[in-house]
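Section 5: illustrative case.
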């Protein structure tokens, strides 16, 4: 009986899983770019800019994700920006997790020896060229495991978007539960799907990190 329900619900769960992956990808791409820019501002922007950036990062990180999603969803219309709930949710996730990405990038850049920057300056390169051409590839190698872990967290965090009516895996699972009155069956199925996605992401991060470390030795 329960197996038959899962088989019948498989197309819906597959479609919802695809939506979850899409929202995760959009949010992660924006978060990585925004986080990198925030990290660069904190490093190259001077004391005042670094202080403002630090306050912004700590302020956002101190807010629960659910509250931040609600705040974004209801604040954008008041600013004259009317977006679909899906876009509001993606923006909220992207901005929220970009603060963590910024800290990861900042820590990665700090671990690179200063002689790399000095060598770039000796060649007449600008600060931005040094950061992007010389330091960024090395920082990505250092930050990759942490960034992939953040990506796995973003996948799980998309479930919060269901609160504002965004149709993804959690909301689709809840709809199935309401129809069939079988919460255990479908939430366990959702649990398995989330676990497979996140575990695959973490294992991929470990594999890539090991490969990069090996290549760096030779």
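Designed sequence:
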């Amino acid at each position: 009986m329960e197996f038959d329900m899962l088989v019948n619900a498989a197309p819906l769960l597959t479609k919802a899983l695809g939506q979850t992956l899409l929202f995760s990808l959009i949010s992660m791409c924006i978060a990585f770019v925004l986080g990198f820019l925030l990290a660069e501002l904190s490093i190259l922007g001077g004391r005042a800019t670094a202080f403002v950036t630090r306050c912004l990062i700590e302020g956002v990180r101190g807010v629960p994700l659910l509250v931040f999603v609600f705040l974004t969803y209801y604040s954008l219309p008041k600013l004259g920006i009317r977006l679909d709930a899906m876009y509001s949710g993606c923006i909220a996730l992207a901005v929220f997790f970009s603060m963590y990405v910024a800290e990861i990038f900042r820590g990665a850049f700090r671990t690179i020896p200063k002689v790399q920057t000095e060598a770039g300056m000796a060649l007449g390169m600008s600060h931005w060229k040094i950061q992007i051409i010389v330091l960024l590839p090395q920082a990505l190698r250092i930050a990759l495991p942490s960034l992939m872990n953040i990506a796995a967290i973003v996948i799980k965090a998309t479930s919060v978007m269901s609160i504002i009516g965004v149709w993804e895996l959690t909301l689709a699972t809840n709809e199935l539960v309401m129809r069939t009155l079988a919460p255990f069956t479908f939430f366990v199925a959702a649990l398995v799907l989330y676990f497979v996605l996140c575990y695959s992401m973490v294992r991929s991060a470990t594999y890539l990190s090991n490969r990069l470390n090996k290549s760096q030795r030779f």
